[in-house]
């Protein structure tokens, strides 16, 4: 796999001292030897192909980034066809596209939200017409929902689709400036079509937002069609290669059949039939939210790989005069910054698998017309999306700072990693808003649990009461490192936070507020409750995985240490919530702080092996600091020398500005 000419001796020593075989762990992360082999073959297919070589992104203008993104995305489509069995499922496709497109996949939305919306919500006739065009890339689609004025509040979207029974067409309009579609990826310059969300009007009545397939550009010369105004929204925090766009519609007509009518219909005479469940329109967002949990695991794994490898190579500060400078990885404070994040990355890898499995089961049920678990899936995917993406967002910045000055250089890989990751906290549902959705589900479940209803798996614990939970925690013994006790403690904390938030909602209700007002008044507590619940799911799932995994004793021990670090560090970070209800005593919290510190040197032994197990190739990491061979300093110098500013010894600005300044007094001498 990774070929290294000369490995930095410090890094080599770390690898030699490890007690675990990273390859054993890699096989677990990537679902077995066969899947791992496929992943590596896909990587070889991309990285051994000269067509996928690019100049470093950091030295490109935005226009060059966009063009390079399109070039790579387009060749990835054609080359993919030759890869046969290597791309068997959606995950393979995502992995391949991420590798091949590198700088940014111009067709991500085409293959995800656009395709998914049609598959999920179109009539069979429309599917048969659109899907072959989509799959063969004869059209390029995106998902245009958000407007300048509203992203979160979907019922507030202003784009209109008025049905005209005379021509059997919908007439689409952007009636206000704020109704301009704003943000959709690949909308500005790339896409020919979009699934557009608009308020449906028929027979003089508004029926709320519905999806429509709208052609935006000519399939002959790519010009925008009459009635359509399109463009790029300009430079952003990151995503330089993506033409996130705007769209205005002016009396743009589309055939009636272009409405996605599997669940709700407009008959030729304009009669409206509503869907069996209004939330079905939101299914595509649920799908991407579940994928963001996976993106969070990979994002944090990438950040910790760079920071931990670099910390093994970097030496700084003599502890005592004349002594060799230690590797910064040897400082407990450095370990305390990075190892809980490493443990978190593993926790997220395991929980993302659970998320994907649950999504796939419930989605199949929904397709079969069984909507009983739709709320549970919404609560789960919203909570985990928000919880994992926020933790990764914060974690990446800690990783960057842990690399000192070099972490600030683009060569570290952190700036791009961060700016491309951080919108995961905003898009597909802003995180606070999503946690409030999860909380709504939790509050309802708690109520139903109290009434004796059978609750679905992820919230089944809410049908117990705190006394039972406390008894369970007590019966688990009081060894604070015992995983069973830790899960029980997190369960009680989640339950109490949910009860507290529910009480606040009830209190507001008894003061006469309606449900919406009461939920809003209690919203700070509700967010905290949803966070505690999502945290529990991650801890509990990690514990279940520990029990299921058939691995060597040494690896089992290391995974247990990671679990303990994740769970114990989590307690120290929100110790107030464990203390306030007496779930833990002050003495116990102090003991837990000490356990966290004691776990650090144990994990230190395998820290490099644990990040090697994530199996990032250098081309993927794209970081001078995180290189597998650890030859950081030589490469930093090489990288700086390749900067366009160093093309010439004397820069042209010298003649224009510096020389006149420096020489201004010469004639007077
Ligand atoms: C590369 C990435 C590219 C990015 C692309 C994008 O960003 S694309 C743009 C991404 N944009 C966004 O993500 C926008 C984020 N905004 C939203 O998703 C919605 O506006 C909302 C959920 C915040 C509120 O919705 P609302 O005002 O309609 O309603 P409400 O709060 O009154 O709830 C009504 C009921 O619906 C339920 N329910 C809701 N969602 C789901 C679901 N998915 N499934 C199942 N159920 C769901 C909810 O639980 C409630 O049930 P209850 O309690 O009555 O039994
Ligand atoms: C890089 C990127 C790519 C995107 N791609 C797409 C795309 O392809 N297609 C598409 O349609 N959209 C896309 N979006 C838009 C994205 O989905 C929205 O920006 C997102 O849903 C958040 O909505 P908003 O911008 O309206 O935020 P706002 O809702 O205005 O959020 C602002 C603040 O208000 C708070 N807030 C809002 N409502 C509530 C509430 N009810 N209770 C408490 N607090 C609240 C939020 O927590 C936040 O702090 C993209 C955005 C980005 C950044």
Automatic annotation (TrEMBL):
<dbReference type="InterPro" id="IPR046373">
    <property type="entry name" value="Acyl-CoA_Oxase/DH_mid-dom_sf"/>
</dbReference>
<dbReference type="InterPro" id="IPR055060">
    <property type="entry name" value="ACOX_C_alpha1"/>
</dbReference>
<dbReference type="InterPro" id="IPR037069">
    <property type="entry name" value="AcylCoA_DH/ox_N_sf"/>
</dbReference>
<protein>
    <recommendedName>
        <fullName>Acyl-coenzyme A oxidase</fullName>
    </recommendedName>
</protein>
<dbReference type="GO" id="GO:0000038">
    <property type="term" value="P:very long-chain fatty acid metabolic process"/>
</dbReference>
<dbReference type="GO" id="GO:0033540">
    <property type="term" value="P:fatty acid beta-oxidation using acyl-CoA oxidase"/>
</dbReference>
<keyword id="KW-0285">Flavoprotein</keyword>
<feature type="binding site">
    <location>
        <position position="185"/>
    </location>
    <ligand>
        <name>FAD</name>
    </ligand>
</feature>
<dbReference type="Pfam" id="PF22924">
    <property type="entry name" value="ACOX_C_alpha1"/>
</dbReference>
<keyword id="KW-0274">FAD</keyword>
<dbReference type="Pfam" id="PF14749">
    <property type="entry name" value="Acyl-CoA_ox_N"/>
</dbReference>
<dbReference type="InterPro" id="IPR002655">
    <property type="entry name" value="Acyl-CoA_oxidase_C"/>
</dbReference>
<dbReference type="InterPro" id="IPR012258">
    <property type="entry name" value="Acyl-CoA_oxidase"/>
</dbReference>
<dbReference type="Pfam" id="PF01756">
    <property type="entry name" value="ACOX"/>
</dbReference>
<dbReference type="GO" id="GO:0005504">
    <property type="term" value="F:fatty acid binding"/>
</dbReference>
<keyword id="KW-0443">Lipid metabolism</keyword>
<keyword id="KW-0560">Oxidoreductase</keyword>
<dbReference type="GO" id="GO:0071949">
    <property type="term" value="F:FAD binding"/>
</dbReference>
<feature type="domain" description="Acyl-coenzyme A oxidase N-terminal">
    <location>
        <begin position="21"/>
        <end position="140"/>
    </location>
</feature>
<dbReference type="InterPro" id="IPR009100">
    <property type="entry name" value="AcylCoA_DH/oxidase_NM_dom_sf"/>
</dbReference>
<comment type="similarity">
    <text>Belongs to the acyl-CoA oxidase family.</text>
</comment>
<keyword id="KW-0576">Peroxisome</keyword>
<dbReference type="InterPro" id="IPR036250">
    <property type="entry name" value="AcylCo_DH-like_C"/>
</dbReference>
<keyword id="KW-0276">Fatty acid metabolism</keyword>
<feature type="active site" description="Proton acceptor">
    <location>
        <position position="428"/>
    </location>
</feature>
<dbReference type="GO" id="GO:0005777">
    <property type="term" value="C:peroxisome"/>
</dbReference>
<feature type="binding site">
    <location>
        <position position="146"/>
    </location>
    <ligand>
        <name>FAD</name>
    </ligand>
</feature>
<feature type="domain" description="Acyl-CoA oxidase C-terminal">
    <location>
        <begin position="482"/>
        <end position="662"/>
    </location>
</feature>
<dbReference type="GO" id="GO:0003997">
    <property type="term" value="F:acyl-CoA oxidase activity"/>
</dbReference>
<dbReference type="GO" id="GO:0055088">
    <property type="term" value="P:lipid homeostasis"/>
</dbReference>
<dbReference type="InterPro" id="IPR029320">
    <property type="entry name" value="Acyl-CoA_ox_N"/>
</dbReference>
<comment type="pathway">
    <text>Lipid metabolism; peroxisomal fatty acid beta-oxidation.</text>
</comment>
<feature type="domain" description="Acyl-CoA oxidase C-alpha1">
    <location>
        <begin position="282"/>
        <end position="443"/>
    </location>
</feature>
